[in-house]
Amino acid sequence: MIGVDGAGSVDFKKETFGTRFEIAYNIPDNSRVSEVPAEHQADLTRNNFIQAVIGVDHTLQKKVYGTVLYLNMMYIHAQNTTDRNYNPGALTLEGLPNFTPFDRNLVLYVEDRITPELKVSNAFLGSFENIDGVNSTSVSYSFTDNFKSSVGFDWFLGRQTGFYGQYSDNSRYTLNVSYTF
Description:
Blueprint: E1 2-12, E2 15-26, H1 38-44, E3 49-59, E4 68-80, E5 104-113, E6 118-127, E7 132-142, E8 147-158, E9 172-179
Antiparallel strand pairs: 1-2, 2-3, 3-4, 4-5, 5-6, 6-7, 7-8, 8-9
């Protein structure tokens, strides 16, 4: 992998916005693919690809309903630069979604710290390519620095052929209690 990244900030109307970018050219190691039988080589060969991420985040200076609100937005883009693994071989399973997990995605994250202990957050990751996504909402409470709990809901939606849409029947509630030491 060869890549560059950067981060900075932009001031706009007395507000500061954090900015960042990453771009990487990934070259998978296909050197041992020739060691397997020919009928399996197409399943093991991987494409070179470019992945890019741009993002902006901001913490509102004024409290919203008496709380601190943090916003984060990112765009993720992945693009194959070769077509090595588009000829599937004998091990291909029929009927399963054919997708790139991070193709052209938008990530929106909102965090509301109601008190230092209580936080409400919502994260959405949606794919422009597959017209699907996942929305994850949670409420977390820190009893101490070590003892925390949260309750949440993960909602998978969209086309059944997409990375997230294939799980649309598996939306779930979550409960987490953790103690770290």
